[in-house]
Amino acid sequence: MTVLRISILFVLAAVAEIGGAWLIWQAVKENRGWVFAVLGVMALGAYGFLAALQPDANFGRVLASYGGVFIAGSLAWGIIVDGFKPTIWDWVGSAIALVGAAIIILAPTSTDATAETAL
C-alpha cells in the first residue's frame, strides 16, 4: 500500500506543479490573463501540500525523488497538451530520471535493519 500511496501522491503532485507552471506560462507568455496566473499559483500551492503528504519524513529525499517524476511528467504534459515531439534522448533521459527517483525514494534507509547490515 505504501508504494501505491507514494506513486499516487507523486502523480498528483506532478499534475499540480506542472499544471500550475503551465497556467502561469500561459498568463505571462501567451497573454491569457490574470485568472490563469491565479489558478497557477493555487495549483502550485496544492503541489506543496501534496508533496508534504509523502510518508517519508525527509524533505530532501522526497523533493529529489520528485525531480525524476517532474522530468517525466513535464515531457508527458508537453506531449499531451502542447503537441511536443520528444527525441530518443528525451525518452532515455526521462527513464534514467525515473530510475534514479525510484532508487532514492524506495531504497532502504540507514534506519532500516537491512541497510545497516549492508554497510
Structure description:
18% of the residues are buried. It contains five helices and no strands. Helix 1 packs antiparallel against helix 2 (34-52), helix 1 crosses helix 3 and helix 3 (59-82) packs antiparallel against helix 4. The mean pLDDT is 90. The chain has one domain. The protein starts with a helix and ends with a helix. The chain has helices at 2-29, 34-52, 59-82, 88-106, 113-118. With 119 residues, it is mainly alpha-helical. It is 81% helix and 0% strand. The longest helix is centred in the N-terminal third of the chain and has 28 residues, at 2-29. The chain is flat, with a radius of gyration of 16 Å. The chain crosses the membrane at residues 6-25, 34-53, 59-81, 88-107. Belongs to the UPF0060 family. It comes from Microbacterium hydrocarbonoxydans.
C-alpha-based Rg, rounded? 16 Å
Helix content: over 70%
Averaged pLDDT: 90
First CA to last CA: what distance? Answer: 28 Å
Shape: flat
Largest sheet properties: none
DSSP strand count: 0
Give me the secondary-structure category.
mainly alpha
Number of domains: 1
SSE order:
HHHHH
* Poorly predicted runs: none
Helical segment count: 5
Determine the strand fraction and express it as a percent band.
under 5%
